[in-house]
Amino acid sequence: MFKQELTQEEIVILKKLANQYKLTQPDLIVKGGMADIAHQICSKHEITLEDLKSKERTRHFVVARIEFTKRCCIELNKSMNAVGRFLNRDHTTIIYYKNYE
Fold it and tell me: pTM higher than 0.70 for the full model?
């Protein structure tokens, strides 16, 4: 295979193209993860992220936490401990949320 050095001008052009490409990509593809699922759940249930992570046990918040837990376990294959840390909960609570019908 033939190897060729890039000139300084070509390097500058490639960097500009890479930056333009990065700016055209949607944020969801770049971010991903539990934070995005949390924001989707919060907007769906019309609650804040603080409500999702709070210790309050009203049904509206618990249902949102259950949906968040199931999505993180299924879509992201996250462990019970990881989801629990995100929600400020023990992993046993997350097991209960995951098994809730």
Answer: no
